[in-house]
Amino acid sequence: MHIKGVIWTLGILIVLFASGMLLPALVSLYFSSGHADHFLIASALTASLGLVMMKWGGGSPKRLSHKDGFLIVALAWVVLSLLGATPFWTTGVCEDIVDGLFESTSGLTTTGATVLTDLDHIPPSILFWRSMQEWLGGMGIIVLAVAVMPLLGVGGMQLFRAETPGPVKDKLTARVTETAKALWYIYLAMTVLSGIALWLAGMTPFDAINHAMTTVAIGGFSTHDASMGYYDSMWIRGLTVIFMLLAGINFTLHFAAMRRGFSIKSYSSDDEFRTYIKWISLLILLIGALTLLTGSGTWDEVIFNTVSIATTTGFAVSDYALWPPGTAMLLFAAMFVGACAGSTGGGMKVVRVLLLFQQGMREIRRLIHPHGIIHVKINEQSISGSVVQALWGFFVLYMVCYAIVAILLSFTGVDMLTSLTAAAACITNTGPGFGTVGPASTYASLPDAAKGVLMFGMVLGRLEVFTFFVLLVPEFWRK
Amino acid sequence: MNVLILGAGEVGFHIAQRLASEGNDVSVIDNDAARLQRVADTMDVQTVLGYASHPTTLAQAGAENAELLIAATTNDETNMLACQVAHSLFKVTTKMARIREADYVNHPKLFGRDELPIDLIISPEHEAAKSIVKRFQVTSAVDAQEFANGKVQLLGMRIPPKGHLAGIALSELHEVVDGLRTYVVAHEHNRLWRVPTPETVLLAGDSIYLAVAGRDVERLLACMGSEEYRGKSSAQRNVLIVGGGHVGYIVAQQLEKLGTSVKLIEYNPMRAEWLAEHLDRTVVIHGDALDRQLLEEESIDTIDDFLALTNDDETNILGSLIAKKYKVGHIVTLVNRAIYSDLMREMGLEITVSPRLTTASAILRHVRKGRIFDLSTLGDGTLEVLEAEALKTSAILNIPLSELQLPENTVIGAIIRGDKVIIPNGDSMVEPNDHVLLITQGTALREVEKLFEVGLEFF
Fold first, then answer.
1. If pLDDT is split at 50, 70 and 90, which confidence band does A165 have?
2. Contacts of A375 in chain B (CB under 8 A)
């Protein structure tokens, strides 16, 4: 392990992050809503910490092992979540230290769970910082760092692998820097498109920028208490649905499609994409039937809320907690399935669920053909036994983590429904749950200890369990 | 002609034998001394021990004077390289190579004068697989052969005991087939194959070959009314393939495309894994095809088609016999060794495929002189089929077929004029540049070839 290299890399990440804090300062100057100085202070504090770490680390590491990659990524997410809270404290929006941390962690992990109320009267700079945190966390701030800093090219792949979600990680191009750049270009282009579209559909430019960032990052922070329910426009809702769906697709697929001139075929030939579309359509049909039969909602509400939860975004146009109980269970299941691997969404990822399902089918077929040789396949390619095993390991760990988070929550005095759903909403990076943390309320009422547990769950979910857990194993630290 | 044959495996051996017996000077190269010895003992050829693509080995075998090189080793890359060497260093005129890997064959741009200089690509496994799939689609026929790119088919079938074909003379056939144009070109009675006359009477248990236009095949089969398979389309059938070698793999792949449900039994565990990875919907089973328990596990009694396609003739024959015991309707047996081909009928196995024969005839077709394009055999091999072009100098032009003096035991089964197919009657005439499908007894082959050879006055 190269401790100095790890420290230096963390330092440069922190400096990059600190420079990001300057943007909200500009926003507050533009709206002359005050707080510019507070953001400058936060940025200066953060940057100086980063510079000290870089100084101590001595310089760009010659090489990074895969262990260093895990360490850097896990530490980076914890440290940046911590530092991202400084503006909330300096501006005094969150008087409570824990609340600031919660908001920051929830933003960076694209969870979108909030403790803030009265969003419509919070200074625009703060709102902008929240959205921007989600946007940075969406594609992954480390992927961004690899893209913009060629210095990180050496150990880039180690970092890249530890941060991007999904069971199989492909490099799109020969050089990891190029891959990271490609991903960020697609991400940026999608954000810009989304912003323009929302603006044309009737949002104010400020709201359009914020919502574009939180939609494409599959985050779910809004600039209004009523979330998307604030806008009574079919255009805005429809466009948001489309961009949520797009951001929930594997970016590798977008990249491949872009190279082939956006042919529908490059999407429709992908097993994960097809399952993703079928799964969301099925959810919409079932939830729609339940809701419409009982007269508790309309079609557009059903489509919007279902897509929002199924992609793990967390926007809401209406309080779906008032829908029949069956819909709540379906949405709860949808959180766990999540979006596609390699997207900005959370959850376990469609491809993993698909593979687990196929593995189950394989066992059934084995009973019919005792001597049959049956492979689990995605896109006509056999998935090796070790990947399937890793998948089972992931599934078990993920569920165990979920159970632990939920149990710890209940220890802090939270009721059962809230514990079960809040734990799911945070570990899958969705945001709103049910009970006291439903779409119509916030996480503010939870005790501090509960918030702490949930923050842990969010980071765990964002890094897909393994990257975080590997640090907890004694063998990792042995020389 | 000086011929160089690389590789003394099944294919190489058979071609060498045929070409040597036709009076060519043949050299065979192989890197296995034992196999070469077998060649040297059986036929009158030169044998050279060495690596087939090495220039010194080729020179030693007389490549400088060779007009034809047939690269038939088991290794695709060796075959391709040998053709390149023969082209660049020795200027051999015609080069043929056996290439198994479909990935190479699917890129025709690879081959050409300035690319890989290969004039003819032979792929025994592909040829065999193609004919198996062809037969699969016309199961009521015992055999199906395509000519002129599928425009004409020769269908082989048995006269069923209670069908409406039994007991009629050929001159009455057109009433049974509903006016469809068809021509019976070969008839077998008591194991004796001959070219029939209009007076020939069909008896139950006889076999016949019918020439029919490709587009009429379905209708003809419907008229003939073979009850067993009526109503079961390719997609509804259950197929069991034994052996996942090249042939088995290609057949499984093709059947998957037809929507058939396929099971494939493979003995070698590594190969079985490979197959499971590369086939999409086929159920790959690792085990011994002669294991009764395994066969019953896979419910062999509900199988519609049993295809025995391993590399081992004995396994194929025994497997087919077991399948027959379970009353499987359609059984195809792959047999390589000539001695077994003769035995098949005795054992009650009617449909056999022989990659070696198919390949050898593909090569010989190319070697033959004149304007003869296609050549294959019917029945037990006594009858030959030729597709030939009638040149302006040919003696058979513009005479009604009823008056045409063809050699004994020879008929014209079909005339292909451009895109049109004419199943002839007595009034039909052959025009210049028509392609003609002739069926003839082996003994008359020389005479028939003469009809189509370029006449002296042409020069």
1. low
2. 273, 276-277
Tokens of B257: 């495309």
Write the residue in B275, B280, B286 that is nearest to A380 by C-beta: B280
Q: In the prediction, which pLDDT does A175 show?
A: 73
Q: pLDDT-based confidence at A168, cuts 50/70/90?
A: low
Distances (CA, A) of A56 to A83, A218, B96, B99: 19, 36, 70, 63
Q: Which of A362, A365, A366, A373 to mutate to test the interface with B (most CBs of B within 10 A)?
A: A373
Query: Which residues of chain B does A372 touch, with a Cβ-Cβ cutoff of 8 Å?
Result: 283-286
Distance from CA of B283 to the nearest CA of A (A): 7
CB contact under 8 Å between B297 and A371, yes or no, is yes
Position A197 scores a pLDDT of 94
Q: What is the distance in angstroms between the Cα of B280 and the nearest Cα belonging to chain A?
A: 7
Q: How many CB atoms lie within 10 A of CB A292?
A: 13
Residue A248 has what pLDDT?
Answer: 92
Give CA separation, B334 vs A159, A177, A243, B127, B267, in Å.
55, 55, 57, 12, 16
Q: Which residue of B has its CA nearest to A384?
A: B277
Nearest to B276 among A370, A375, A381 (CB): A375
Name the pLDDT band for A309 (thresholds 50, 70, 90).
very high
| Nearest one of B78, B77, B74, B88 to B52, comparing CA atoms | B78
Using a CB-CB distance cutoff of 8 angstroms, which residues of chain A are in contact with residue B285?
Answer: 369, 371-373
Tokens representing residue B449 in the block = 């070839």
**Residues A31-44: tens digit of each pLDDT:** 888 788 888 988 99
Measured between beta carbons, the chain B residues lying within 8 angstroms of A373 are 272-273, 275-276, 284-286
Q: Which residues of B touch A381 (CB under 8 A)?
A: 277
First to last CA, chain B: 22
C-alpha to C-alpha distance for B403 and B363, rounded to whole angstroms: 35
Q: Do B276 and A373 touch (CB under 8 A)?
A: yes
Pick from B286, B294, B298: CB nearest A373: B286
**Which strand (E) or helix (H) includes residue B323?**
helix B313-325
In this prediction, residue B225 carries a pLDDT of 59
- At residue A32, φ and ψ (nearest 5 deg) are 35, 55
C-alpha B44: how far from its chain's center?
27
Confidence class of residue B405 from pLDDT cuts 50, 70 and 90? confident
CA closest to A376 among chain B residues: B277
Query: Are A374 and B276 inside 8 Å of each other by CB?
Result: yes
Q: How confident is the model at residue B140 (pLDDT cuts 50, 70, 90)?
A: low
pTM: 0.77
Average pLDDT over residues B200-217: 81
What gap in Å lies between CA B392 and CA B385, rounded to an integer? 22
**DSSP 3-state of B216:** helix
Report which of A247, A103, A259, A101 is spatially closest to residue A178, judged by C-alpha positions: A259
Tokens of A44: 């200066």
Estimate to the nearest angstrom the gap between the alpha carbon of B185 and the chain centroid: 18
CB B255 within 8 A of CB B262: yes
Domains annotated on chain B, with CATH: 2-122 (3.40.50.720), 147-224 (3.30.70.1450), 234-357 (3.40.50.720), 365-458 (3.30.70.1450)
CA dist., res. A303 & res. A282, Å (int): 11
